[in-house]
Design a protein that fits this description.
Residues 28-90 are annotated as: Disordered. By secondary structure, the protein is an alpha+beta fold. It contains 14 helices and 26 strands. The strands form 6 sheets. It has a 5-stranded mixed β-sheet. Strand 17 and strand 18 form a beta hairpin.
Length: 632
């Protein structure tokens, strides 16, 4: 861009006198310093920043920018490296409200207090508003094109001026940013013609302000000139536990120029009180006002600070009102003044919403859906599946029974096996789970106690004990994977054609299976599986269809699970080691039965038993005569 073929010696001399700036030939007419007509060509004013002798160095400016962004380390002020003051200690009232609610309860607005670094970054990225007033230390970015070519970064000196090459000083302090272009256009137009310019603000000055009163970290702070009251609060960590969120004063030159209520911003979105800060301003935070805890079924449980005229309705509005599932007809209030007499009183909504609340009161809203209604008042949802005319979900009146549920589903089909009805209930399942888990814990405790009390005399016994422990642990883990279903066994005959008159509950489920014609035989039999059932067959007869029990079967522990969920065992039929024949010979097999023959678990060889008895008798000093006596 620089034309080295300079033809005007005077132009070179003039350029040199102006600090080494180069003037090039241009096609447009300009006015030289003497007011005469200069040669054609654009004038290059330069790209380096024009500074004054009293302007701070670039290095110091970078340090200042780093400090303003919140990355400074100020140990004397107690701030951390990130600029975030320590979180204020919870007040006694916050601790008390948290204990009542069972969850941490904080003051409304405390989560708006950003760290100092975050607040600084937000201001650094904020657009300069048109009404921003240029001040000392601000940087002006000036770009010219046309007959003049310039890209300048000029800092406002202590006299409020910037110095433009070949133009001279221009006073810009006190000028609004929206008026900056017009001011510089008029001033540069006194020297050059046929040009355009764009003027904006670059790095802004820092201002120092003070935070006093009930604040987490009082003292002096330096922020960007774009900072507002909210920025100042964030820099100082916000009000302390004893400080107010609603009584914050902005003082300038000894007079109060603004009052800031954080709730106006938080609740109403009103930012009018968030005024810009100026140098030497004072933010004064007053003492906290009356506080009320609002807990329970509200949208944002919190401790709110009230004005003297605020009511219960206002307190609820501050926390977003009652939640969707709240009981909108009532809430309770615990008044500080009544805690030695009547601690808690119940209020009716909306009638008592206009009542005033006092300092230290606790309002609690209730959940309207967790408390179960009496069964006599509940409409029940029940699912009916299987062999009915219209399977599906039904909502029935409070007093209906299982028979009414079947009737609502259109009644049984011709294939329905009423005896095998599977009836499950959610409330029963929950009780079963608790009892089942307790039984498993007891089993595990007994197993551990027995294992620790056993004495091992030989390596063979130690190996057997270890294997027994492994097997028992596997059994317990398998039992844990099985969960109760909540099934209720209905006491009916195999030929029943209707269900018992049992009242239904919400969430009940009925499944009516088709009538089966087989029985299942599993366990220690020669050929387990399902077999066709004859009407006169006994359990012993169907066992013979599977080949009967094997040699290792425990015939004394055979059991049958009927289709209705009831169980019949060989021990309950009177069978045992003193009885003759099969223990299940008189038990009638029913459609849908499942017969299980367990394996004998406590089997030992003859040699092992002989060895054990010999050791026992030897230890007691018994000889061959004793052995003969025992044998006889």
């Amino acid at each position: 861009m620089i034309d080295l073929r300079l033809t005007l010696i005077s132009g070179l001399i003039a350029t040199t006198l102006l600090g080494g700036l180069t003037q090039a030939h241009a096609t447009g007419d300009t006015l030289d310093d003497d007011g005469g007509t200069a040669s054609t060509g654009p004038i290059r004013l330069g790209t380096r920043s024009a500074t004054n002798s009293d302007e701070p160095s670039r290095a110091s400016n970078r340090d200042e920018a780093t400090r303003l962004s919140g990355r400074d380390e100020v140990s004397s002020s107690g701030r951390t490296r990130s600029g975030l003051p320590p979180k204020p200690t919870a007040s006694e009232f916050e601790t008390y409200a948290s204990q009542l609610a069972g969850t941490p309860i904080e003051r409304l607005g405390s989560d708006l207090m950003l760290s100092a670094s975050s607040a600084g970054n937000l201001e650094a990225n904020r657009q300069v508003p048109p009404d921003y007033v240029v001040g000392l230390g601000d940087e002006i970015q000036l770009t010219l094109w046309g007959s003049v070519d310039a890209d300048l970064r000029l800092t406002v000196d202590r006299s409020g001026r910037i110095t433009i090459p070949r133009v001279g000083p221009v006073v810009v302090a006190g000028v609004r940013q929206a008026e900056l272009n017009d001011l510089l256009t008029r001033r540069i137009g006194q020297v050059f013609k046929n040009f355009q310019l764009s003027a904006g603000l670059g790095r802004l000055r820092g201002i120092r302000f003070y935070v006093t009163g009930f604040v987490a970290k009082p003292g002096a702070y330096t922020v960007s000139s774009l900072a507002t009251v909210m920025t100042g609060l964030a820099q100082s960590g916000g009000p302390s536990a004893a400080g107010s969120f609603r009584n914050i004063e902005l003082r300038r030159n000894g007079a109060v120029v603004g009052r800031f209520d954080l709730y106006n911003l938080l609740i109403n979105g009103d930012k009018t009180g968030d005024l810009p800060l100026q140098a030497d301003d004072v933010l004064h935070i007053g003492p906290v006002g009356a506080q009320v805890a609002v807990i329970g079924s509200v949208n944002k449980p919190a401790i709110v600070e009230l004005k003297p005229s605020d009511s219960i309705d206002d307190a609820l509005a501050y926390v977003g009102g009652l939640s969707t599932v709240a009981d909108a007809t009532r809430l309770t209030i615990e008044r500080l003044s009544d805690r030695n007499d009547r601690r808690v009183a119940e209020l009716e909504l909306p009638r008592d919403g206009s009542l005033k609340v006092g300092n230290g009161d606790v309002l609690r809203a209730f959940n309207g859906v967790t408390a179960a209604l009496p069964q006599a008042k509940q409409y029940k949802r029940i699912r009916v599946e299987g062999e009915v005319a219209r399977p599906g979900d039904y909502v029935l009146p409070p007093t209906n029974t299982l028979a009414d549920a079947v009737q609502a589903a259109g009644g049984f089909t011709s294939q329905a096996f009423v005896f095998g009805t599977e009836f499950t209930r959610e409330s029963v399942r929950k009780v079963q789970e608790v009892q089942y888990d307790r039984a498993l814990r007891d089993l595990e405790t007994d197993f551990t106690r027995n294992t620790s009390s056993q004495k091992v005399t030989t390596a063979e016994n130690a190996q057997a004990l270890t294997q027994s422990q492994i097997n028992t642990s596997r059994l317990i883990e398998r039992l844990r994977s099985i969960r109760p279903t909540g099934r209720i066994v209905l006491d009916m005959s195999v030929s029943a054609s209707s269900l018992p008159s049992l009242p239904i509950e919400d969430g009940d489920r009925l499944y009516i299976p088709p009538r089966p014609n087989t029985v299942g035989i599993f366990g220690s039999v020669f050929n387990g599986g399902s077999y066709l059932l004859k009407s006169e067959d006994s359990v012993d007869d169907v066992l013979q269809l599977a080949g009967g029990p094997t040699r290792g079967a425990d015939t004394e522990s055979i059991f049958v699970i009927h289709a209705n969920g009831s169980v019949l065992s060989a021990r309950s039929t009177g069978g045992g080691w003193l009885s003759f024949g099969s223990p299940m010979r008189n038990a009638k097999a029913l459609p849908g039965d499942t017969v299980f023959v367990p394996e004998e678990m406590n089997k030992t060889s003859f040699m092992q038993e002989a060895k054990d008895w010999t050791q026992i008798l030897y230890q007691f000093g018994l000889g061959a005569a004793a052995l003969k006596t025992i044998k006889n």
